[in-house]
Amino acid sequence: MSAGADSGQVVGAAEVLAGRRRVELLRRLRTGSPFGGTIGLVGVVLALAIVAVCFLGPLIYSTNQVDVDPLKAFLPPSGEHPLGTDSQGFDVLGRLMEGGRASLQIGVFAALVATVIGTLYGATAGLAGGIVDAVMMRFVDVMMSVPFLFVVLIVSTKFNSSAWSLSLILGLFSWLIPARLVRAEVLSLKTRDYVLAARSMGASGPSLVFRHLIPNSLGVVVVNITFQVADAILAVATLGFLGFGLSYPHTDWGGQLSAGVNYLLSGYWWLIYPVGLCLVAVVLAFNLIGEALRDTLDRRRTL
Amino acid sequence: MSAAADLGTVSATRVLDVRDLTVAIEAHGRRLQPVSGVSLHISAGETLGLVGESGSGKSMTGAAIMGMLPPGGTITGGSVTLGGRDLRSLSETDYRQVRGNDIAMVFQDSLTSLNPTRTIGYQIAEPVRIHRGASRKEAWERAAEVLSLVGIPRPAERLGDYPHQLSGGMRQRVMIAMALACEPKVIIADEPTTALDVTMQAQVLTLLDGLKERLGMAMILITHDMGVIAGRADRVNVMYAGRIAEAADTEDLFAAMRHPYTHDLLASIPLLDQDRSARLYSISGLPPDLSERSAGCPYASRCRRVSDACTALAPELIEHMPGHAFACWHPMPPQSSPVLVARRQANDSRHEETVEDATPPRLAVSGLVKEYDVRRGWFGASARLSAVAGVSFEIAPGQTYGLVGESGCGKSTLGRTIIGLERPTAGEIRLDGLDLEPLKGGEGRRRRRPIQMMFQDPYASLDPRLRVAAIIREPLRLAGDADRSAQDARVRDLLDAVGLPTSVLERLPHELSGGQRQRVGLARALAVHPSVLVADEPVSALDVSVRSQVLNLMKDLQADLGLTSLVISHDLAVVKYLADRIGVMYLGKLVEEGAGEDIYQAAAHPYTAGLIAAIPEPVPDVERAKPAAAVTGELPSAIDPPSGCRFRTRCPLADDICAVREPELIDLGAGHKVACHFPLRVG
Predict the structure, then answer these.
(1) B3-102+184-257 architecture in CATH?
(2) Nearest of B484, B555, B480 to residue B522 by alpha carbon
(3) Using beta carbons and an 8 Å cutoff, which residues of A are at the interface with B?
(4) Which of A17, A57, A180, B517 holds its CA 20 to 30 A away from the CA of B499?
């Protein structure tokens, strides 16, 4: 036991603490297992690079993505158009940024919606136990067996596809996995002594959920968010590819891919490869981050 | 260490000789040295006790001898010689020939040390097939033979059982049988009975002792329990911070100890015949961090007799008298163990129950029953497990009531029911005359707030993601009757009360030591000014030297705050130190109740008497004079408890009436109550 520090420093230390925690998390990410550390770093760098290009890129490289110009259709890559132009005469690099923005927005928002719903649902079911838990989880089982893409297709034709509506629809159909994960975690957490201690002090259900159960299952949740983002981006791409994605003048990577496929035999490779590679890279990046997070969090648990 | 540390006369029968053993472990970029220059030896038919607190290097020494150091661990110096053969020079293949064949190990936790997917017969036969090249059938026969040796009835029928079908005591016997299967020369028992109840512990220790004699093995008994050592070891090595502090014959050590650590360690153990008014001695501070090597004596920072010489240079282990070595610059004058002294003083201090007045009880439990439905198998019929079967007791304001019993007796369930974590099946719990049971929801939570709990495991009972300040503030926040700054002030007061510096406020639980965490748990329990404190095994997860610190603290706070407490523990000595009245539980029933001295000195129930006899005391003469095993057999299942008196299946006095009629709790006078048809004491 070291000698007592000045008591005054504790009061205003909230911000310092928050900062310290963030630094701790970053340090853990870097100093993870010898392999996981570098893998996680690669994922973070890749994801940051893609986000930077999509969101900051247009500031440096601005292109007209609204007005169709048939005269400029199918130009191969050149100094003026580094990745050429597509069938409508849009600059492909600019279109890539435009589509990437939409894909990332939808992916992240859908993952957040899914995680919030899933975490609350799972924690409630796990804490309640008994019949409530059984009914809630059977509902999840039923939802799991509904072909999700099919429903999304139907719903998205009913409503006008915008980035917000698409991500909401995706989110509403992908909270099942986080719900199961959080429930399993809560089932084991709720028998821990510190949860019993809080109960014995008179903590109510919501207080237990928000103060002890959710914070302690956050590890699982955070790891799952990254995989959810990757999954949602892929789902958006699938929808776009099938023609149920965003409508003109907006675009997403799936729509671009499907437009490019029409000219597969014409040798217009710049319509396929750049967007395909971007899609692979962003999904890979989020999966790597998730994997590394899982490693570090698991390791901390065994310590 | 020098050769002078070599103890006793050199004999030809010396089986195992360890000299200057030093072990280093590299993990997470840190280098620890858990064992530093340890020398020990052992002869056939001898038991060497290796005693120390956690982190003293005792288990690591055993692992080094077995050649089974954890990943990153290496022997960096010294020698290990088994029957003239240098084990350090052996290749891994050759070492495998030694392991299980010449040296065998009995592990602490029989549940994780046995493979759950193999029958016990297969597991006992395995070493025989590996080392003796025996056929499947021969090995199986040998397995039956050793199983009968460890006292398992009808061994041939048991060979096909899986570990989960056996009780804890049985599994520990199986572990011993596995170790014995190849008739090893040396057997290393690492905390062989720590996971067992005292009555079972007595049985297993007696078994180990007898086997060692019959088979002429040498045994190294590694334990933290001075009582176990006193009764079973021929010689004792006391370890501290990876070194041997004192080594002597058992009688010699207890009668004329020299090292201050040995003395302090014994002085901080609460004893059954402890004078309750005298405070336990407590060693200040914490054991040293093994990653920092200092030149001085490792005990210097906690020692009462410390001088400049101690911090400058570590004393060597020197044999000052034949057979008695110690490593200390300022040894204590040869004195008998503080335990023996306390024993002498405590005699005839038996005091009569004084408080039997008319003040209404603070907490009154009457006819409390808690049963659980358990299903056997997937579709099996459900059965009723009777955890608590009609327990009644009262605690007067400001008094401490102690509940003792072995695991499975329902004492923890009772505690959890009282604080409202479980709903009783029947019965009442009254706080200041108000029945708490019918109250539900917010009202129930508010009414139960005066009852707070201190939990057993200081590692599990604090939320790992909350800082200490938030942990202690939680009950205040839940009570919601003070603003934030008042709460902060209260948290600071509480820290002060439990003797923690304010610097721990922003730490996370994993940054604290076990003793500090338990203090945080106590501070949290006291936060809302409870009138009743329920402490479930408050110190059983702590090391001896830290345990006495926490016990003293609890006792002081109880007196200062006028708390009414319920202390639940398997350790009668702990309960007796803290409690005014004691209740003994057996299989869901309260079998005896009375003042601490009455229970200890004049136990009326055969179970209480057996329990007291089974508790190992750190006094060699007393331990050796004890009968083999006071309470025999196993705890019956609570799903189908015995009819009549629940203890009758293990009771030496049981008669026909015990199976038919359940004994009532009758008063023998002065508040000493017993539930037995044939009490050992009448009136």
Answers:
(1) 3-Layer(aba) Sandwich (3.40)
(2) B555
(3) 1-5, 7, 10-11, 13, 17, 192-194, 196-204, 207, 211-212, 215-216, 218, 303
(4) A17
Specify the CATH number of the domain B363-450+530-674.
3.40.50.300
Closest CA to B373 of B363, B387, B360, B394: B387
* Domain containing residue A270: 35-58+78-302
Residue A155 domain-assigned (yes or no)? yes
Which amino acid is located at B630 in the chain?
A
Contacts of B528 in chain A (CB under 8 A): 201
Is the Cα dihedral A290, A296, A300, A302 positive or negative? positive
Nearest to A189 by CA among B371, B372, B109, B465: B465
Q: Check CB contact of B456 with chain A, cutoff 8 Å.
A: yes
Q: Is residue A27 part of a domain?
A: no
Nearest CB among A5, A193, A216 relative to B461 is that of: A193
**Among A37-41, B40-44, B543-547, the range of highest mean pLDDT:** B40-44
Dist. CA B519–CA B506, nearest whole Å? 15
pLDDT in tens, B599-654: 888 889 999 988 888 888 888 888 887 766 667 777 888 888 888 899 988 888 88
Both structure tokens of B210: 């007898």
Q: State whether B524 and A197 contact (CB < 8 Å).
A: yes
Instruction: Give span(s): CATH 3.40.50.300, chain B.
Output: 3-102+184-257, 363-450+530-674
As a whole number of angstroms, the distance between CA B211 and CA B216 comes to: 8
The predicted complex's ipTM stands at 0.72
Domain of A202, CATH number, reads 1.10.3720.10
Instruction: Tell me which chain B residues have a C-beta less than 8 angstroms from the C-beta of A11.
Output: 488
Is the preceding omega at residue A249 within 30 degrees of 0, hence cis? yes
**Count of domains in chain A?**
1
